[in-house]
Amino acid sequence: MSVIVFTVSLTIFFIVGWFVVSRVVASVKARKKLESQKDEICAQLIQASRLACVGELAAGLSHEVGNLLQTILGNTELMMQNGSGEYLVTIKESALASKKILSNLMDFARQQKMSFAPGDVRDVLEATLKIYARQLEFQNIKIIRDYDAALPELRISESCLQQVFLNAILNAQRAMPKGGKLFITILRDDPWVNIIFKDTGVGIKKENLGELFKPFFTTWHDGHGLGLGVSNDIIKRHGGEINISSEGEGRGAEVKIKLPLVFKEPAGDA
Question: For the whole model, what pTM was predicted?
């Protein structure tokens, strides 16, 4: 009889012990999950706060820089009337492009609707390169193009896409202060068209790669940390992807932009 009682007691002990342990484990898991959710919410709040700052900064930039650009445009028009020159044409085109970039930055901050139309990404890219060609040449940076011959038109926002390309080109230029090569590739890779910018510059530390698209993060001492965040938003609203890779410092960097062949208009831009 005592053996039976002992066996039953031992069984009950193990059952109760198992129940207690399982409850403790479940409680620990639930606590860890709550902590993880808390961290995620905090990160989202910080991101939202930073984006709010972007909006305020964009408003200030648009007003102050916009006024300066208008003065540049006005004086350029007068100079062109009195005695033209290709340099003045370039100045005017650059100022107009800058005004459009400021407008796009405001749209990004306000999440305004983006207009899409059929367009050739090669034409957009070449127009962007034309604006900055002299600076690249002066800095001894050679552009090496490799474009697929048969590329279809895509549904794009040309001015916004030009802003993305300009940001990629400017970052490559900064990465090659003593000159170098910028390889630009456009190729069809169904269901995408890939636009790739690969430079021979200073490269990017591996620990910084995951931070590049965060607002206000920059690896440049005089940078503002907005360009890549805006570029990322623009490409996402095209239904595409943008990724940056580097094998480390001194080994260059690559910006890869993927745009869909079949465009699906984002809900917010419908």
Answer: 0.64
* Mean pLDDT along residues 150-166: 90
Residue that the structure tokens 């898991």 belong to: 29
CATH number belonging to domain 118-269:
3.30.565.10
Residues 6+ apart with CB under 8 A from 163: 100, 101, 104, 230, 231, 234
In the chain, what are the domain boundaries?
Answer: 42-110, 118-269
C-alpha–C-alpha distance, residues 9 and 15, integer Å: 10
Tokens in use for 38? Answer: 């808390």
d(CA 211, CA 226): 12
Distance between CA 174 and CA 202 in Å, rounded?
9
Three-state helix/strand/coil letters over 131-154? HHHHHHHHCCEEEEEEECCCCCCE
Mean of pLDDT values over 201-208 = 85
Q: Residue 163: which of 230, 212, 217 has the closest Cα? A: 230
As to burial, measured by CB atoms within 10 angstroms (0-12 exposed, 13-18 middle, 19+ buried), residue 20 is exposed
Token pair in block for residue 114: 């983006």
- Please choose, from the candidates 128, 121, 209, 217, the residue with its C-alpha nearest in 3D space to the C-alpha of residue 170: 128
